[in-house]
Amino acid sequence: MPFVAALAIGTAAPAQAQGMKPSKAQQVQLGKKAAEELRQKERVLSSGDPRVQTLRRVARRLLSAVDDRNEPWEYSFDVIDNRQVNAFALPGGPIFFYTGILEKMRTEDELAGVLAHELVHIRREHWAYNYRDSQTRNLGLSLLLVFTRANRDVANIAGLGSSLLTLKYSRNHETQSDNEGFDMMVKAGYNPQGMADVFAMLRDQSRGGRPPEFLSSHPNDNNRIRNIEARIQRSNRNFPAQRPLNFSRSGQRDDYYGG
Question: Domain ranges in the chain?
Answer without folding.
Answer: 3-238
